[in-house]
Structures are given as structure tokens and as C-alpha cells.
Amino acid sequence: MKFLIQKLTVYFRDGQEVIDFDQISYFYGRMGAGKSSIVRLIDYCLGGKFILTPALQRDFVGAALLIQLEDCKLSIDRTWLSEFARVEWQSAEDDIVYNANISIRNPMGEIIAETGVETLSDLIFYLSKRKIPKVRVSKTSDKAELSRLSLRDMLWYCYLDQDNIDSNFFHLEGSSSPFFKKNKSMDVLRFILGFQNEVVANLEDDLNKIRTERTQYETYYKGLADVLLETETGSSLEIQNQINKLKIELTKIETEIKEQKEILKEKNTSNAAKELQNICRNISIEINNIDNTLHELSISIDNDTRHLNEISGLSLKFQRATSARAILNGVEFESCPRCTQELPTRDYNCCKVCGQLEDNTQESSNFEIVKSDVFTRIKELNDIIKIQNTNFTNLTNKRKTIIINQNQAEMALNEAMKEYDSAYLSNIIQRQKKIGSIEQKMKNLNRLLLIAKKSDFYQIQVSRLKIREKEIREDLQEAKDRAEGNDKNIRRLQQYFKDCLIRANFPGIQKSSLVVISPKTFIPTVYSGDTSKGEKPTETTFLNVSSGGKKTIFKACFAIAVHRLALELKAILPNILIVDSPMKNISERENQDVFEGFYNMIYSLASDKMKETQFVMVDKELFLPKAEFNLLVKVRHMTPNEDANPPLRRSYRGL
């Protein structure tokens, strides 16, 4: 998998340090110069942990890493102690620059829709056009959940750090490493060797999806089955049979109601009730008309009585006015009777008080005429009122008689309705109530039928998925058997590991030595000795090599062999190998053959079989490649106190 580091930028409070990389980058020099900090910062940008050295404790802010992947460049910027990284990338397919904040380790939801990319590791696989690798949590059950195989797990074979290069063998030995790390390390090798090839991974992914879907359907089915069990309704077929029976019963009752109605028509029970209803209705109309007439008569009597009283009052006023005039007619007024002032002189035919003309010619005759008219009008009104009162009384009596008839008619109607109800309600209304009950039952059963049909659907889906799950499980087992049965790749790994050990002049290893790698543990064992002479072969493993120097070479050679095989198989392993201090426990002078042999082996492979692999070497001394290798090595000599060969933090002077 193409993974080339182009540049590391280290940010300080007062500036930054930029470190460029090539196919081979070589950092060497005295201790305390920050050589190991460079590769640890690379690891930090990729999600690792980093302990600040004294040189960085005051001023370190963060670091940024620029990586070339398949067809795009990825920039990873991580500040100090942050669990997130700022990433930026641009694909060769377009000119768009993408950027995002992404979690270093813990999935926090997709940052690119429908890709499954949730962490920095996922993003690197995605941009490398690789499917995010997943393995089963449990190795003993194919029903176990799938979990991500992180880039961090693969970096165990890409970054041999100084602290652990001689203390553990890729966490495979188990005794000094947590069990889960051992499993993850073995998963990485399975992917590289093809034991966990793409066919197996896809089948496991399909199996996991189908199992999840089946579990959901089983949950739905169980829930609906419990509901049906509580209602005691049975299966969808039983519910449908109940509905059909209710439909037959409903049709039967509707037919009986229709027949009963025909029988009632023949008995004319309803006709007698209708005649009495018409009589009662006519009586009510007549009573209403009488009430309206009585109301109008009452209003007319009141009006005529009021008119009579008004005429009588006016007649009395007229008589009083006439009498007063007669009395005052002979009085000679000298002063005003109101204000007592002296009256002015008036004409002989004018009133002495008001000055108006007086007409006494028809006084007596007018009074008699008015008196006669008033008497006549009063008599007429009295006659009219008398007639109206008589009519009012007659209508009131008539109303009482009609009320009696109405009560009798209503009693007869009630009797007829009782007879009608006993004939109709007892035979039809009860059946109608039963129809309502049946329809409600059918409504409830139809609801339960929908639930039952949904339950049947889920049950069918569960059965279908179980069959499909079984088929995939069989295909998966067959694919696993094919992958693990083919030991060609593990034989090639044995061959490459032996070749690396011989080239590196590893003590005690000859061409006649035999390397065996167990496909179950992936721990290599080197058998040496001449068995033809009856010698018992010696076994060399990482665990029984007492020398720390041998352990570093042993582990580094195995990592190189793994990378060489991964290149040939185009496996998912990033094609970068960082080795921090392979000569950690080896003297370049006392073990010059090992020192030179190890680096000549790297340069030889880098110029031929491993041209696509990027090497980052950190060591005490420098060993440059021979001219015949035709390699350019980017070298940086680092010391803690020389301006010509400055440390990582150029202004720092100390240990």
C-alpha cells in the first residue's frame, strides 16, 4: 500500500522545524539531539502517544505530517495532547481541497457520507482506495462481531521503536504483551499472507450484515408473536378463519332482519302508529293556530281598552276646560294672573290676558257635538271589547277541549308504539346490536391480521436469512480453508527472513539453516546444525536470543521480510519501514560485519526488490551505500551542541 512520508513540520512557540524525507532518510549522531523524537513525532501524527523530551517540554506546540498516498497527498496536523487531527487532502481527480477534523482513535461518526470513515486510520485506507479491514473479535466463533483492524496495528510492522525493538517480537510472543495485541498482530500477518484475503474479508462482512439483519427480524418477530400470544388469536390463518366465520354470521343476521321487516309490514303495526302520529300532529297544529289567535285577540283587547281609556280621559279634560271657561268668561282682568303686572289695552273682541281673538258664537254647539261623538265612540269600543272577550273565552274553552283530545291521541299513540316496539325492537334492534358487535370483532381481528401477516413476513425473512447465512458461512469456511491451506506465502516469508538474516551476518545462521514459521503463531524459529553428522539442531527464536543486539537484528530482519512479501502480494501494509537504532546494543567496531551487513542488506533491497519501500533509519553511526547501489540517501547529522549539526530544537543545548 503506497504510503510515502514527504515532510514533517514540528511547531514551536517561536518557530518551526521542517524535515524533508526521501526513499531513504538517515538520521544519526550523538544522544540527546532529538533523532528518536523525529520518528516518534511521525508516529504521533499517525495517532501514537508521545512523551516530551526536555528539549521540547517548554516550546512544543504540535506537528504536521505530509504523506503521499495512492493518488493524493494527505496532510495531518495534530496539536499537543489533542485526540483529534486536522486533515487536508486533494485528489488527483479534481482540484478540490478537502479538510476536516477527525478522531485519532475513537469512532465519532462518519466524516464522509456512506464511506464508513470515522477515524484517521479509516481515512488513510479510504484515500488509499482500500477497503477498511475488519476482523472478528473472537477467533473461536464465526458469529463474533467484526472490529476494525487499525493502521496503528499495522504500524507495529512499520515502526520499530527504540524502546521495544529488543523487548518484544511484534506482540506475537503473548507472554509480555496483552492478549488482544497478540490477536491484532496475527490479524495483520493474516492479511499480508493472504490468510485473511479480500474474499474472506468480504464474506465476513456480508455474513456480519446478514446476521445483524436476521437478528433485527427475529426481534421484530418475537415482539409481534408475544402480542398475538397475549391476545390468544393464533396465526394469521386462524385469524382469517375467524373473520370468515364472522362474515357468514353477519350475512345471516342481515337476512333475518330483512325477513323480519317484511313480516312487520304484513301486520300493519306501523300503519296504525302512523295514523295516530298524523292525528297528534294535526291537533298540535290546531292548538298552535288557536294560541296564535288568542295572542292576537289579547293584543287587540289591550289596544282597544287603552284607546277607550284615552277617549274617556280626553272627554273629562274637555268638560273641565269648558266649565273653567264658563266660570272665567265674566271676569275682567286688570293685571296678569301670573306676574300681577298691569295688562295692556286690548280690542273689544280680544282676550284681555293673551290678546287673541275670541269666538263665542259656536261655543255651546261645539261642546254638545264633541260630547255626542265621545259617547258614541266609547259605546263602540265597549261593544268591540265585549265581543273580543267573548271570542277569547270561547277559544280558550275550545283549546282546553282540544288539549283533552290531544292527550287521548298521545295515549293511544303510546299504546300503538309499545305494540310496535315489542314487535320491532325485540326482533330487529337486538340483531342490529349483534351486527355492531360482530363488525367490531371483525375490525379488531383485521388489525390483528395485519400484525400476524407482518409477523409471518418477519418469520419468512428470518428463514430466508438463515439459509443465506448458512450458505455464506459455508463459502467463508471454504475460502478460509483455501487461504490457510495454501502455505506458499508463508514459505516465501520463511525464505525472505532467512535471506535477511544471512545478508545481515546474523551470528550462527548459515545457508544450511532452516527457518520455520508456524501458521498458528507466526513466531519464526531458526534451526541450525549439521543433522547429517547426528548433531541435534539448535533452535533460535526471539525469546531465547540472550543478546539485545541479536534481538534488534532478528526483529528488524523479520520486519524487512514481511515488507518484501507485502510488496510482492500488493498487501494492505503501508510501504514504509522506520527502524530506530538497529545498532542499539551493537558496537560498530566490535561487530563491524553485522553493522555493515545489515545496512548493505537494506541498501541492496532498496535498490532492487524494495524500490517502492521508504526507509527511515535512526542510528548512532552513519553507513552510506556503495556507489553500485545507485541510491540517494537524505542524511542529517544531529548533535546536541554543535551549530553545524544542530539538534531537532536548534536553539536547545543540553542532554
TrEMBL record:
Domain of life: Bacteria
Pfam families: AAA_23 (PF13476)
InterPro entries: P-loop_NTPase (IPR027417), Rad50/SbcC_AAA (IPR038729)
UniProt keywords, alphabetically: Coiled coil
Chain ranges of the Rad50/SbcC-type AAA domain: 12-258
Residue runs in coiled coils: 200-270, 462-496
Protein name: AAA family ATPase
Species of origin: Hymenobacter yonginensis
